[in-house]
Amino acid sequence: MIRDIVVYPDKRLKEISQPVERFDEELHTLLDDMYETMIAKNGVGLAAIQVAVPVRALIINVPVDTDSEDPRVQQPKENTLEVINPVILDAEGKTRYQEGCLSVPGYFEEVERYKAVRIEYQDRYGEKHILEDDDFLAIAVQHEMDHLEGRLFIEKLSLLKRKKFEKEWKKRLRGKK
Is 144 a catalytic residue? Predict the structure, then answer.
């Protein structure tokens, strides 16, 4: 089922997500719905809080190289990384990458993140895993993990860029009414 995305400045995005304790059918349904929602909205990642569920769960599906225009071919479900209760064990280096967010639709800006991360997490069945990456996946995981702490990528912007964003965003919101 496709769920509604919580959009900035909704206060729920500031909530700190709670650890997942039960790895049951309810969690599996949430993860499946998150995949459907992410694909429907052309996303690469999604945290549970973005669909109004404040638990420490996120998914990432980095598109594969293909000629197909079909999002389900570009981002097959079996390639989805389901990350529950993640903890950064190690991080090093710095890199800058232009990010966007389904909760801040249509806005993209360059953000600084760790270049390489090592993360411990659980899968949908509660099994522990280690993820090590120094590419786009590392950036995407950090972006989604920020959501679990009630942070958005726009909070990483310089003061000047943040003020410009807020002004433009308020104008956009007024235009929708």
Answer: yes
Give the span between the Cα atoms of 138 and 143, in whole angstroms: 9
**Does the annotation list 101 as a binding residue?**
yes
| pTM of the predicted structure, to 2 decimals | 0.92
Task: Give 54-71 pLDDT, tens digit per residue.
Answer: 999 999 988 767 666 776
Pinpoint the alpha helices (H) of the chain: 25-40, 71-74, 136-148, 159-176
Whether 140 is covered by a domain: the verdict is yes
Alpha-carbon distance 2 to 102, whole Å?
Answer: 14
Is residue 93's pLDDT more than 70? Answer: yes
Please identify which of the residues 82, 99, 109, 144 carries the catalytic annotation. Answer: 144
Whichever domain contains 124, its CATH number is 3.90.45.10
Q: State yes or no: 28 annotated in a binding site.
A: no
The total domain count for the chain is 1
Q: Per-residue pLDDT averaged across 3-23, rounded?
A: 98
